[in-house]
Amino acid sequence: MTSAQAEARVEDRCDHLKVTLSNFGRRNALAPSMYVSLRAALEQAAAEDRLGAVVLTGADGYFCAGGDLNALATRAATSRDERRALIEDLHDTIRAIRACPRPVIAAIEGGAAGAGLSIALACDLLVAAEDASFAAAYVRVGLVPDGGLTASLARRVPAGFAARMCLTGDPVSATTLAGMGVVTDLVPPGKALARAADLAARFAQGPAAAQGTIKRLLASARDGDFDAQLDREAEAMADALAAPEAAAGLKARLSRAVPDFGRGSSGAEKKETRR
Q1: Considering the domain 3-242, what is its CATH architecture?
Q2: Contacts of residue 71, Cβ cutoff 8 Å, sequence gap at least 6
Q3: Are 22 and 59 in contact (CB under 8 A)?
Q4: 12-66 residue pLDDT tens
Q5: What is the pTM (predicted TM-score) of this model?
Q6: Radius of gyration, CA atoms only, the chain
Q7: For the chain, what are the domain ranges?
Q8: 258 forms bridges with which residues in the sheet?
């Protein structure tokens, strides 16, 4: 499956909608077509009281690796307005997840990275396999977080922990995030989708209007100026995509090399050691 064939498959499971991010061979890297389908599913869920939740998962044992590096590497050649518009497509999707009156449950196997982590953290509940990992990987290719990631982390984890995640891009285990309450349900590998479906069935038996009101009250209590933070991230990301650091980082990562961001004495790229 090429990036152009990336999709978010929507299945009506009677008491919930299951949305599967699928981009074969790219760990379900994001594409605009996915946003369209996901937003349509969120709109359907909002319109039909029989649906207790939207369950968001990834195909082939991995949630989402974030932005497609091949696509991101071409962004420097576009205008700033074009870059900003593409980021806003992601941000509109984040807003739609947060605004949906039905609970949105992320069912995570394997892991979530970059904008995939942003999407996961926009969900109301995170069900994750014990061996899953999470990474704010932007910095590793010379980019900055978008999708509300800085705001989501700032509201959920200690400041130093958020700084370490974003500044290093190092993966964090699901068990660590469960200890902080970020992962709400920690399950054995292969069981995330089943647990999410059980939760969705439970929500489908509850009061739809009250659940929607609870979501709004929780959001207003914690969020403050989240949309303004989305705008700040979009501005920073639009600039970062055209910067030399991103060109170096994306080129190196696509060729499986360690990126040289020009801060050392040697300009030679070193081959990446795969772990």
Answers
A1: Alpha-Beta Complex (3.90)
A2: 3, 31
A3: yes
A4: 999 999 999 999 999 999 999 999 999 999 999 999 999 999 999 999 999 999 9
A5: 0.89
A6: 18
A7: 3-242
A8: 270
